[in-house]
Each structure stands twice: as C-alpha cells, then as structure tokens.
Amino acid sequence: MSIFCNRDLTPTQNMLPVEAGDLNPQSSLKQKQKYKNMQNHQVNFQCEIMAIDDTPANLHLLTNLLKQNGYLVRPFPSGKLALAGIQHSLPTLILLDIQMPQMNGYEVCQNLKANELTRDIPVIFISALDEAIDKVKAFTVGGVDYITKPFQAEEVLARISTHLNLSRLEKLLKQENSLQAQQLVEQNCQLQEINQALEQANQELKQKYYQLQQAQLQLVQSEKMSALGNLVAGVGHEMNNPLGFISASIQQAKPLIFDIVEHLKLYQKTLPNKSDEILKHELGIDLDYNLEDLPKIIDSISMACDRLKNISTSLRTFSRADKDYKVPFNIHQGIDSTILILKHRLKANEQHPAIEIVSNYGNLPQIECFPGQLNQVFMNVLANAIDALDESNQGRSFEEIKLNPNCITITTSVENSLVIISIRDNGKGMSEEVKSKIFDHLFTTKAVGKGTGLGLAIARQIVEETHGGKLSFNSVLGEGTEFIIEIPV
Ligand SMILES: Nc1ncnc2c1ncn2[C@@H]1O[C@H](COP(=O)(O)OP(=O)(O)O)[C@@H](O)[C@H]1O
Ligand SMILES: [Mg+2]
C-alpha cells in the first residue's frame, strides 16, 4: 500500500537550472510551461521509502522520523531481507546502511543496480563511516548521496526531498525522451515514405520526359517524311497523266508506223525506177537504215514508258500514307521503292563507281504493318549505309574502289514467325564508342547539316515499339555494318 506525500516537495532553486532554464536565459515559454506541469504532477507523487539498517535503534529512529513526515516506510534489518522484499513492491527511494553482517550496504547497492527493475531507484547511504574513501566507494557502486551518522533529522529530510524530486524529474525526462525518440522514429518513417513517393514521382517524370522526347522526335521526322511523301506522291501523280498519254499514243502509233514502213517498202519494190529527186532524198536520209531502226526506236520508247510506269508506282508505294491501323504490305516492294528514291546516290560519278545493290530476297508473306513507317526505316538504314560507303571512299582512288567495290546486300527471310531483313554494307564500320551511342537521340558523327542523329532512334522506335519487332546490328570498324530488322509476321 502506498500513501500520497503531504510534504511540500517543491524543488529547491538548486534543482531548477536545467529544467527551468536558468542556465539558458533564452529558454522558451514552452520549456517553462513543461516545468510547471512537472511541478503540478508532484502532488500525486507516491513516495514509499525503504530503510535498511541492522541496528534496531537506528532503524526505529529513521522509521519514526519518516512516518512523522508523511512518508510510507518499509523498514528492513538486513540487506538480504530487503532484496527479497523489494520483489513485491518497488520503493521510491532507499536509505541504506553500509556496515551490516552477511551482506554490506555496498553489495546490496550493487545488486540493486544490476537489476533492470531496481536500477533507477535512488539509494542514499547512511553510515558512521566518515572516510572520504568510503564515500567515494558509495558513489562508485551507484549511490546518489551520503549521510553520516549520527544524522540530523532536517538534513535527512532535506536530502530525501531533494532526491525524490530529482528522481521524479529524471523519470519525467526519460518519458519525454522516449516519447520524442518514438516521434522521431515515426517522423523518420514518414520522411522515408515521402522520399520513396518522391523518388517514384521522379521516375515517372523521367519516363514521361523520355516519352515526350520520343513523341517529339517522331513528330519532327514524320513531319519531314510527310513533306517528302507529299512531294514524291505529287511527282508520281503528275508523271502519271502525260505518261499514260504517251504510252497510249505509242501503242496506237506502233501498228500505224509499222504499216507505213511496210507501205514504203512496197513502194521500193514495185517502183524500182525512182526519180532523181526521190533517189537523192532516199540517200540523204539513209532510208534503208531508218526503216530498220524505226520499229526498234518505237519498241524502246514503249519499254521506257513501262519503266516510267514502274517508277511512278514505286513512288506511290514509297509515299503511302499510313492508316491508323496495320495493313498487309509486301516488304520487297517497300525496299525496292526506297532504293528507287535513293537511286541518284547509288549511281557512279567521277569519284566512285556505282554502288552495287545485291538483293537476296526470300519468299516472304505479306505482313500486317504500317507501310509508310517501315519505308521510313528502310530509308534511314539504307541512307546510313550509303553515307558509310561514301565515307569509306574518302582518300581512295576510283581504281582502288573498283577493286573492292561498294556494295549493299539486302537479304530477307522468314524464321520462327519473324520476317528478317538484313541490310549489310562494306562501308567504314563503327568504333566501340560509336556503337554504344547510335540509338541515342541526336547522336551523329556526320557534319552539321548532313546528320540529324535521329534516324536510328526513330527507326528503333518504329520497329520495336510500333511493330513489336527488334532492330539490332553488327559492325566491324573498317569492314562494314549489318542492320537486322525483325518484324513479327
Ligand atoms: N551503316 C553504318 N555504318 C557506319 N556507321 C553508321 C551506320 N549507320 C549508322 N551509323 C552511325 O550511327 C550514327 C547515327 O545514325 P542516325 O541515327 O541515322 O543519325 P545520322 O545518320 O543523322 O547521323 C551515324 O552518325 C553513324 O556514326
Ligand atoms: Mg541516318
């Protein structure tokens, strides 16, 4: 059982500094309020004092003194009994004699300090030993104070009051500290969560930025391609009408011209005695030769018309505007029409012989795709191959190039439901550093105005993201490069 102290336990001024902030003149109102709360709290402070002394007269005297001053007291005549008794209820403070049989005060104190439950109970030694060394030992084993016998009642009461207050304030401080520690842990957790959320948001932002860049690139490129497409489609269309007219007229003229030739030959046969004027004209225009040649010329015109028609069809194939859904497409037509657009760059000139195109076309099915976009991929890869060949020609003479001619080999096949298109050149190849960057946006090794550094980034996006395929490459510096486009059938 415990009682409430009715003594005035208000701490002395000596106890105030740390709490009330005398040492810290700028201590906040908040701290002062906290201290006030602590003071109010002491009204309910339960104080039970354990007195341990083997001299009955001393124990009696102490017990009475404390009781008279409103404390609840539990007297014990030996350390052993006290240690056993403390298990039932914990006192607020312990008054401990040193010289006792069986177990002295120091040992009792060491036992108390070794136990988690009793460690924080303040122990005041009361002893007749007056040597400094005894006092030092008392503090070393964990005592908080030392009173020498014979004691003055006022001194004992004052010291008890002081240590009770100190102990209470210490407990409050500990509680406050553990509360703050807990709050810190919670705040730390919250901060970690916020940090995680921020990191995730950052990742999402990066992803969005990347997508935006991609979209922007594609927009720029498709803008260009659509301008080119419009031009090519326009040229193809404009070519078509006069071409149709020439072709139809030639077809019409062909039998007429043959008839006229036949007719002239008939004249020659049936009218052998020509006038001088006719003979002279006949020799002047080399009539026999012309009559032989004219049908051939007409055939050539007719063949050229057919070629022009093919070109016109290719132009329209290349510039096909994509619908917003995939359509069946003949990949070979796409590649051929792209080569046609690039024909002017393949032709021989003073610096180099023609670039040879070797087509090893396999038996491909039509594939569902966006033809305009795939043509754009062929265009980017083939244009790069031509650039690489041009660069490898730098510093080589026409004859040297002829010995090891520029060549682009295009091979197509179907394997495991994939259409595989390989475009290989024997151009300058790439260094390891270039290889690691070719798909980066805006990476180019070409002169300003020549390269944009967008071609392969766009090509990869079209092949991999739009068509679910793969764009890969092999390259050896000084030997050449192969790009492999794989598209699911
Ligand atoms: N066939 C190739 N041979 C050698 N290098 C190539 C080849 N294709 C691409 N590259 C390298 O990749 C770079 C990036 O190509 P690309 O994205 O098409 O941009 P650009 O052609 O505008 O430079 C080129 O500048 C070049 O260095
Ligand atoms: Mg390019």
Q: TL;DR of this structure?
A:
It is built from 15 helices and 12 strands. It is an alpha/beta fold.
Low-confidence stretches: 1-28, 34-45
Secondary structural class: alpha/beta
In terms of DSSP E residues, the strand content is 5-15%
From the N-terminal CA to the C-terminal CA, the straight-line distance is: 90 Å
Kindly state the percentage of residues in helix.
Answer: 55-70%
* Ligands, ions, cofactors: adenosine-5'-diphosphate, magnesium ion
Mean pLDDT: 85
Shape designation? rod-shaped
Helical element count?
15
CATH architecture of the domain at 13-185: 3-Layer(aba) Sandwich
CATH topology of the domain at 13-185: Rossmann fold
Count every beta strand, where a strand is a DSSP E run of 2 or more residues. Answer: 12
> What is the topology, as strand order, of the major beta sheet?
2-1-3-4-5
* Cα gyration radius (Å): 53 Å
H/E element sequence: HHEHEHEHEHEHHHEHHEEHHEEHHEE
- CATH class wording of the domain at 13-185: Alpha Beta
CATH level 4 superfamily of the domain at 13-185: Response regulator
Major β-sheet profile: 5 strands, parallel
Give an overview of the whole structure:
- There is one protein chain.
- This protein is α/β, with parallel strands linked by helices.
- Among the domains are: 13-185, Rossmann fold (3-Layer(aba) Sandwich), CATH 3.40.50; 322-489, Histidine kinase-like ATPase, C-terminal domain (Heat Shock Protein 90, 2-Layer Sandwich).
- The protein has 15 helices and twelve strands.
- A five-stranded parallel β-sheet has the order 2-1-3-4-5, with helices on both faces. A five-stranded mixed β-sheet has the order 7-9-10-12-11.
- A hairpin with a 2-residue loop joins β9 (407-415) and β10.
- The longest helix is centred in the middle third of the chain and has 118 residues, at 153-270.
- The two termini are 90 Å apart.
- The protein binds adenosine-5'-diphosphate and magnesium ion.
- The site of adenosine-5'-diphosphate has 23 residues, from α12 and α15.
